[in-house]
Amino acid sequence: MDAFDPAFLPVSGFDLPRYAGIPTFMRLPHAGPADGVEVGLVGVPWDGGTTNRPGARHGPRALRDASTMVRMVNQATAAAPFHTVRCADLGDVPPNPASLDDSLERIRRFYADLVARGVTPLTAGGDHLTSLPVLRAVAAGGAVGMIHFDSHTDLYDDYFGGYKLTHGTPFRRAIEEGLLDPKRIVQIGIRGSTYDGEDREYAAEVGVRIVGIEELMDRGPEAVMAEARAIVGTGPVYVSFDIDGVDPAQAPGTGTPEIGGFSTHVAQRMVRALDGLDIVGADLVEVSPPFDVGGITAYAGASLMFELLCVVANAVARRKGRAAVVNERLARVLGGPA
């Protein structure tokens, strides 16, 4: 099958109004992983690891609805992800809301099947514990690096006297399980009050690079992302974006908001700076529609998923020996892709 297949293009807003039709991620076709899909957009409607405000289980549905406003081309970079790789909405992982352990295994199996079929996943969560079973599938062949945008490290050891699996512990578990190489992890935007600093002590012990919000604002996103790229290098890397990294003035609909975050524009610039990395999977998590205001968090999340898709699609194309596709007319206006 050729790289470009019109059957995998989103429905045009000139053919069907964007408020009409059955919502899929970015109006893509709903397909199965065996249909030649190269990048699969997947929902994980589950928040069994939440310890504060719940509701992220409803995130995928809200993100799908908001994503109907996504169009074909990234106006800032001229990237055309739907023409670069075959993308599709692969539906939702069916979690078990009555069992955390069973849900984790269901998610792992779902993604293991995608990986076995050569599908690179872009996930809409769900709370941040969702990342752990995804990594168990994506990194089954060996540890990967990670660039992680968040207001929290999610490196705690346990909650409530020994409980090891919450949305505050996934990356500690992933390091312990050999899924993540801690010396190739960069966490960006960390801020807010804390418990006792145990997570930062662990990060320093194993070699995780933490960029707090003050450092990000002082140095600027370009300098921070240049360092992040140098740390993860040319090896495989996973990208995890917690919507609470964005300031709650622009993304209030999340479980654990922290004031003083980066803006949606800075978030876009940082994600765009990932282009050229060997991205093997990505997620956007912790959108909680019950706490949203006018759908602005869901729309921010859907827009950032499109930015992630642009860089993921380019990474997949490079692995397959193909060039990324840009909109040449727009590229000329921009003076060349950014």
TrEMBL record:
Which Gene3D superfamilies does the UniProt record give? Ureohydrolase domain (3.40.800.10)
Q: Name one GO molecular function term.
A: metal ion binding
**Keywords attached to this entry:** Hydrolase, Metal-binding
- Record carries keyword Zinc-finger: no
Q: What domain of life?
A: Bacteria
Q: Alphabetically, which GO biological process terms does the record hold? A: putrescine biosynthetic process from arginine, via agmatine
Signal sequence extent: none
* PANTHER family reported for this sequence: ARGINASE/AGMATINASE, GUANIDINO ACID HYDROLASE, MITOCHONDRIAL
Q: Which NCBIfam families match?
A: agmatinase
Please give the name of this protein. Answer: Guanidinopropionase
Q: What is the organism field in this record?
A: Oharaeibacter diazotrophicus
Q: What is the lineage of its organism?
A: Bacteria, Pseudomonadati, Pseudomonadota, Alphaproteobacteria, Hyphomicrobiales
